[in-house]
């Protein structure tokens, strides 16, 4: 659905798509660490950084800023596929996960807190922290080491009627596998219908659709720098029932508001740029009548293109062998895993992950080492690995870039 001509147009909308301002020409396969930024988001950020006025005043600038924030929230709701609740920005995706989880755990008395071993420490650490502080029972559902994911069946076997807060990772930034959030949420609610469910959507956001109506959850968090915007803020959606627990707020302030202090209008506006981009892309690959229709079409096209890229990386392109065909290479999560979202993580016998990444970088191919530390040890340690190479792609990457990567890998492993 993304033709070569459209791919060229897509790449033209992003900053530094094929060059690094410090290194020069390079292929960017480090999208899980932070995706490329839309030119529009760069321009919007600069524009609003120069505006001195605050919201909430009675002057034309303040009124305009409030209108921009309101419109941006509506756009974000469309992008998330939400029919109720509210959207707000915070310091980062991690900070917002901590805040939502703190509100949910502190707002419930007794009961089980449930998460999974596949999760990023942003959610696991928040749950563990408040379980310890408030003397709560925190349980972890084991993920499938071979598949790199946790299933709805695994949650169903672990959930109990007294489960009151649960967390779900939408996509792993280490294995690259997406979880079936809809099925997991349904499995939780079948046993504990009033459970507060909070989703870490940070890695998933750039790779596919978010449908909060179908998901039936109470919180969803993303980091915009991983979905074509900039660093410095996070975006959260919260349900009305989570808000009813009473988030922290200034004494005498609005009790249903999650916002603290003066908002960065540029944050809201630059996320609106992201929504506008999905809207535009959906219009190129489909004929949807509404913005949400076009966002859904964009999600389908993104998923299809990224599958083409990961298939080429695993099985080869042209006369180049894929990773699965190279001797001594092991793929995290298995080779042909339908849950994979634009990411291949691997290790090679006899060549350290750090050395592979360094060799790729020397040839202008940007990848990343994942170590068995507090970020990735939950995935790598059970596999007996101290480190692995993460190659993460987005829909603006090309098969030619995959070919460049495979060409270097052939040299690295043959040397």
List keywords for this structure.
415 residues; alpha/beta; Aspartate Aminotransferase, domain 1; Aspartate Aminotransferase, domain 2; 2 domains; seven-stranded mixed β-sheet; four-stranded antiparallel β-sheet; 15 strands; globular; Aminotrans_V_dom
Explain how this protein is built.
The chain is an alpha/beta fold and 415 residues long. It has two domains: 4-37 and 291-414, Aspartate Aminotransferase, domain 1; 43-277, 3-Layer(aba) Sandwich (Aspartate Aminotransferase, domain 2). Helices cover 41% and strands 15% of the residues. The protein has helices at residues 4-11, 39-49, 60-80, 93-106, 121-133, 152-158, 181-191, 212-215, 240-243, 265-285, 291-315, 353-362, 377-380, 399-414; strands at 19-20, 24-25, 27-28, 86-90, 112-116, 137-141, 163-169, 196-200, 219-222, 234-238, 329-331, 343-348, 365-366, 368-371, 387-392. α5 links the parallel β5 and β6 (137-141). The protein is globular and about 65 Å long.
Helix amount: 40-55%
Q: CATH first level of the largest domain: which class? A: Alpha Beta
Determine the N-to-C terminus distance.
Answer: 38 Å
Unreliable residue runs:
none
C-alpha Rg (nearest Å)? 21 Å
H-E string: HEEEHHEHEHEHEHEHEEHHHEEHEEHEH
Let me know the number of strands.
15
Structural class: alpha/beta
CATH superfamily of the largest domain: Type I PLP-dependent aspartate aminotransferase-like (Major domain)
